[in-house]
Structures are given as structure tokens and as C-alpha cells.
From TrEMBL:
It comes from Thalassospira xianhensis MCCC 1A02616. Gene3D superfamilies: Hedgehog/Intein (Hint) domain, Homing endonucleases. InterPro entries: Hint_dom_sf (IPR036844), Homing_endonucl (IPR027434). It comes from the Bacteria. This is DOD-type homing endonuclease domain-containing protein.
Length: 475
């Protein structure tokens, strides 16, 4: 086997995910990874001390098995394996381990031209792929070569350093982005950052959307937008700068013209809790934050039905009426988050005759937490305070969250409300339109590029936005 080229390790380390670089370049040793596959999974075999980090880099759906890591056989994970093959020596049965070369446009093109040679960096992966998967591999590597050939240093599209970016482990500041850092793409899955470009001070604007979500960016920042007319004509979305959007923000009837994609439910890298436990947590917190006894009684009855335990009324005095949701509960797996939402909604949610879905609570913190929970599941949520809805002697008003969810996320478990919701859900898909743009001031900014095919990532309030500009280049 060929040995690692020590002179090139620093160049590679600067272009890799921290979670991978941490163990690819230890001071003395370099781990070896062997790749094979079964009918449904890819299998990466490596030393035990590297399995956890290896699985974390490839994604939360990977799992350890003996001396290996099992990875689902999906297009998304093939792309992750491409990154892994570029980053470290990956072998298969022929035992070939190519020398490392710093990533560049020419080196990536050369690697593709060498396929299916045993000495190609992607050779081990390529030889285990079928015809369709080989096309994915070649297209993806050439796409990365195109992206690396673009000089984006002069382009201004950027967000402030204090903007938030969603990652598989929660939110991170834009200032903390590094090449290789995994962020959440528009499809809800992780995608690696492929470039970080500081921009210095820029004029920054706050963009506010129809559900109250907002984000800050400069006027050259790019957005993937569509209009009602274009959607009706089955036309694809367009990528426009904020300045272009601002020049044409409303239509002739003064309605917001531009909408952006709504993120699919986010896949987080977090420990699971049982769906039953998350449902019961939702019941208790909905009851505790409701100012009326009717909701508390409903929560107690449902808790007993679903737990086979006798409910103790003293629990209401132990829970704050201004509770929110535990911070960790917002990053649990999708099924558990849906169960948590169903527990909340079975107590304090309702479906209007129009099909509109609402959650009512006496706690502002809970209304904000439910908004975050819904948005993490690919929905839209707008929180307001209403002094006339559900008016009683026990309260002077309620915090109302208007909710819209994709059809595959059912917010209730109670059959009657499920049926009413399902009948209307096909007409009520989540939509986010740009409602206002306000000047904020000057802030230090930067932009990033991501590996996702649509070039989209998720920022503040689960807003889907575009990465730095990329120009087409003929091959």
C-alpha cells in the first residue's frame, strides 16, 4: 500500500469537516478504512476508536456494527461517501490506497478521467457502485470541480456573522462556519460547507416573512424565489438577489409577490426518546400552560389513558404556567417531535371549519417553543396574542399559534380532529412569502457555499436561503 503523503496533509486538513480532520491527522498515525456493501447498506470498517466520529461525519442514520459502520444505501449517503473517499485512504478488496493530493479543479477532473482505474481516489467507491450510482458519483465530483473553479471573493452576497445556521446538532453562528461543517439543507438532511468567504462590513437588511420569521442579509444575498403566477404556470423558481426582490416586492394588488421554499423536516443528530414519552410530555406541558381547568382535566385524562398511571394533580403546581419546551426536545428525531406536537395539540389545539389549525396557550414562551417545533418539522407558524378568543374569567387572553404543516406531518392523534385536518390539509400547504425588508445598519458579514445540489441551506427561524453565487462553466 502507498503511504500517506505528509506534505499534503495540512492542505487537506484545512478543507475537511472538523469531525473528520480530528482523527484523520493524528500526530503519529493515520487510520485505514475498508469499504464494502450489502444489498441495503454500505459498510465502513475501521478501528473502534474512530467508529463514532466516522459515523457522525457520514450522518445520524449510520450505526455501528462490530468493527464497522453501517450506512444506508441512499443517494444522499453516496455523496457523503464521495467526500470521505476524497478525504482519506478508502480501500476495497484490491487493497489499493492512492496518495493524497490537495483538492483542486484539475485534480478532481483528473480523478474522474482515471475512472475506473484502481489508482483513482474514488476507485474503491466507484467499483462497488451500480451504473446509476456511478453516474451520481461522476456528476457530483464534476459539479464540485465547477464550484471550486469559481472566484466568489468579489461577490457580495452575505449574512452577518451573528446570523444563525442550522446544523445536525442545532444552531451555530455564521462566524463559526468552517469548510466541511455539516449544515441542514432544504431537504432536511445534512450537507457539508464547501467554502467560507469573509466579506467585511456590509449594509444589512432584515427580511420578514408571512409567518413572522425573519433573517438578516445584505442586498446582494441570493434567494430562491417563486411567484403565484409562475407556480400556476408550472414554472421553476428563480434565484434573485435581495435587491432584485426589493425592487418588485409586491404585485399590482399590493400582495407579497415572492415566496421561498419551506424546509422539509430537519434530521438532527440527537439521542432518541420514546414516542410515548414525548407524547406524555406534550400533554403535561399543554395542560400546565393553559389558564383554564378544562384543558388541565383533558391533559390528565389523556395522560392516564396513554401511560396506565394514575395522574397526580399536584403536578400542576410543580410545573410553571409560563413553561416552554425543554431545549433538548427541539432536536430529537422527527417521529418523537411529531409525538410531542400531538401531545400538545390533543390538549390545546383545534381545527377550524376552514381547515386552519391553531394552538392556544397562556404562556408566551410556550407559543414561541411550539412555533419553533412546527418550523423544525417543515411547517409554518405565526404566534399572536388575542384578548377576545377563548375569553373567560380565568384569563385576559391567549397566545395563539397559527399552524400549517406538510401533509405527512399529522398534528393530532385524536381521530375526529385528524379526519378534519386531513380533509383540509391538501389545500393548505405551508408557504412563506416575503412581506417586508428593512434597513438594519452596517455589520461584518460572510457567505458560505454548500455541497447541496440546489445550493440551499437553513438559517434563522428555519428560513431556507441560497449560498454564494455560482456560475456555470462548460466542460
Amino acid at each position: 500500500m502507498m503511504k500517506h503523503n505528509e506534505q499534503s496533509s495540512d492542505a487537506w486538513a484545512s478543507a475537511l469537516p472538523a469531525s473528520l480532520a480530528d482523527f484523520i491527522w493524528p500526530k503519529e498515525t493515520l487510520p485505514e478504512v475498508s469499504l464494502s456493501r450489502t444489498e441495503d447498506h454500505w459498510v465502513l470498517e475501521t478501528s473502534v476508536e474512530h467508529q463514532v466520529r466516522l459515523g457522525r461525519f457520514v450522518g445520524s442514520e449510520a450505526r455501528a456494527l462490530g468493527a464497522g459502520v453501517l450506512i444506508p444505501n441512499t443517494d444522499h449517503h453516496i455523496k457523503q461517501l464521495i467526500w470521505l473517499s476524497a478525504a482519506m485512504p478508502v480501500t476495497c478488496s484490491d487493497g489499493i490506497m492512492p496518495e493524497f493530493l490537495p483538492p483542486s479543479v484539475e485534480s478532481l477532473r483528473k480523478e474522474v478521467s482515471m475512472l475506473p482505474s484502481r489508482y483513482c481516489k474514488f476507485g474503491a467507491l466507484f467499483r462497488l457502485c451500480d451504473g446509476r450510482e456511478r453516474s451520481i458519483l461522476i456528476d457530483y465530483v464534476l459539479q464540485e470541480a465547477r464550484h471550486m473553479s469559481v472566484d466568489v471573493s468579489a461577490q457580495g452576497n452575505a449574512q452577518p456573522l451573528d446570523a444563525k445556521v442550522l446544523t445536525p446538532r442545532g444552531w451555530m453562528a455564521m462566524s463559526d462556519m468552517r469548510i466541511g461543517q455539516l449544515v441542514i439543507g432544504s431537504n432536511g438532511f445534512p450537507t457539508p460547507v464547501t467554502g467560507v468567504f469573509p466579506k467585511g462590513p456590509r449594509d444589512v437588511y432584515r427580511v420578514t416573512f408571512s409567518d413572522g420569521a425573519s433573517v438578516e442579509c445584505c442586498d446582494e444575498h441570493l434567494w430562491d424565489v417563486n411567484t403565484p403566477y409562475r407556480r400556476a404556470a408550472n414554472k421553476v423558481s428563480r434565484v434573485l438577489s435581495l435587491k432584485q426582490v426589493m425592487d418588485n416586492l409586491f404585485d399590482n394588488a399590493n400582495n407579497p409577490r415572492h415566496s421561498i421554499p419551506v424546509m422539509a423536516a430537519a434530521h438532527f443528530d440527537a439521542k432518541d426518546i420514546s414516542e410515548g414519552s414525548s407524547y406524555q410530555l406534550g400533554l403535561l406541558l399543554a395542560g400546565a400552560t393553559s389558564p383554564g381547568m378544562a384543558a388541565k382535566n383533558e391533559a390528565a385524562n389523556l395522560f392516564e389513558q396513554h401511560s396506565n398511571l394514575t395522574f397526580q394533580s399536584a403536578i400542576w403546581s410543580a410545573l410553571s404556567p409560563d413553561s416552554g419546551l425543554p431545549r433538548d426536545s427541539l432536536c430529537i428525531p422527527i417521529k418523537s417531535r411529531v409525538s410531542l406536537l400531538q401531545g400538545l395539540m390533543d390538549v390545546a389545539g383545534l381545527v377550524e371549519d376552514t381547515g386552519a389549525v391553531e394552538f392556544a396557550t397562556g404562556s408566551k414562551r410556550m407559543s414561541e417553543a411550539v412555533s419553533t417545533l412546527v418550523r423544525s418539522l417543515g411547517g409554518t407558524a405565526k404566534a399572536t396574542f388575542n384578548r377576545t378568543r377563548f375569553l373567560s374569567s380565568e384569563t385576559d387572553g391567549h397566545h395563539i399559534v397559527n399552524i400549517c404543516l406538510p401533509r405527512d406531518i399529522v398534528p393530532f392523534s385524536e381521530p375526529e380532529r385528524c379526519e378534519r385536518w386531513a380533509a383540509a390539509a391538501r389545500y393548505n400547504e405551508p408557504v412563506r412569502t416575503m412581506e417586508s425588508v428593512e434597513y438594519v445598519g452596517t455589520k461584518r458579514c460572510q457567505c458560505i457555499s454548500v455541497a447541496a445540489a440546489d445550493h440551499l441551506y437553513v438559517t434563522d427561524d428555519f428560513i431556507v436561503t441560497h449560498n454564494t453565487a455560482r456560475k456555470s462553466e462548460p466542460f
